[in-house]
Specification:
Blueprint lengths: L6 E5 L2 E6 L1 H9 L8 E3 L6 E2 L12 H4 L2 H6 L7 H8 L7 E5 L2 E6 L1 H9 L8 E4 L6 E2 H4 L8 H7 L1 H6 L6 H7 L2 H28 L5 H36 L3 H38 L4 H5 L1
Antiparallel strand pairs: 1-2, 1-3, 3-4, 5-6, 5-7, 7-8
Helix pairs in contact: 9-11, 10-11, 11-12
Length: 298
């Protein structure tokens, strides 16, 4: 436990975190993390929560059971909800919810909030607890989890739900839509830079006696080719991160994608500035040696 610095939490394909081990222990005590969750130290390799670290005591499968599955056998409206909540060792575990086509419960309000934050609990998901006469949409009885209340909230936020469909938030969806364009840009830049460098070196080698203008032109075009090639490699790295985000729609993957994209623009801008400096230096040398500028630039 002491060696862990951060822990990611995953439930039904949704990833949140990272959290400190102390925060995970607190979430376990509050019922926000259960044996049904998966935990990871790097966001890539995952283990069942009761097998990861020592957040849960090691007990036999018969003793541990699947409390949520057992509770789902208690029909909402009956008298079994209170007993299941006691077995769950959480006095506030009184909510049932239909998420991802399955009934879960009883769970605490903290767990319902975690479901909502992970986009597992939708505004139109049916929920129930003791005292309610029927199942109702979550936004009607738990509007604070979505920032709005009542049926009006369901209508006004329907577009947001569509954007989050398929396990993606708006930001991950927008980033994922840039994959094809980024990939083509990277290939085009890399190919153009490579062709420019190879063609210029080949042309220089074919000359019987390269002049000063030939050497200066080669310096300009090779520098441009290298900058384009570097930008192409960076663009391909961004495309690779976007592909990873498409496969693992998690906050961690989205953060890495945005970071790589920011590095692309930073390094591409630095490369362009370096090329402009080289161009200015070459032109100054051309003027000082009475070389025609058009012979250098064309």
């Amino acid at each position: 436990m002491t060696q862990l610095e951060r822990v990611f939490v995953r439930f039904r394909g949704r990833t949140i975190g990272p959290f400190s081990p102390e925060k995970i222990q607190e979430m376990v005590r509050r019922g926000q993390v259960t044996r049904m969750h998966e935990l990871s130290g790097d966001g890539l390799s995952w283990m069942k929560a009761d097998q990861f670290g020592s957040f849960f005591p090691r007990v036999s499968s018969v003793q541990s059971g699947d409390l949520a599955a057992e509770a789902s056998n208690v029909p909402p409206g009956g008298q079994g909800g209170g007993a299941a909540a006691t077995a769950n060792e959480n006095a506030s575990a009184q909510w049932y919810a239909h998420v991802n086509g399955e009934k879960q419960g009883p769970v605490s309000m903290d767990q319902m909030r975690l479901y909502a934050e992970a986009k597992i609990l939708k505004k139109d998901s049916l929920v129930w607890k003791n005292g309610m006469d029927a199942w109702k949409p979550a936004v009607e009885v738990l509007g604070e989890l979505f920032g709005k209340t009542g049926k009006e909230g369901m209508v006004s936020s329907s577009a947001g739900d569509e954007a989050e469909a398929g396990g993606m938030t708006p930001i991950t969806g927008e980033l994922s839509s840039q994959y094809a364009g980024t990939l083509m840009l990277g290939i085009a830049l890399l190919a153009t830079g490579g062709v420019l460098v190879i063609a210029q070196l080949f042309a220089l080698s074919q000359g019987t006696g390269p002049t000063n203008a030939d050497y200066l032109a080669t310096a300009v075009r090779v520098a441009l080719g290298l900058v384009l090639g570097m930008a192409g490699v960076l663009a391909l790295q961004v495309a690779a991160k976007i592909q990873s985000l498409r496969e693992y729609a998690s906050p961690a993957a989205a953060l890495m994608t945005v970071k790589t994209a920011s590095q692309f623009w930073l390094y591409a801008g630095v490369g362009l500035m370096v090329y402009l400096v080289i161009l200015v230096v070459v032109l100054v040398i051309a003027l000082a040696t009475n070389v025609a500028l058009l012979d250098v630039l064309v």
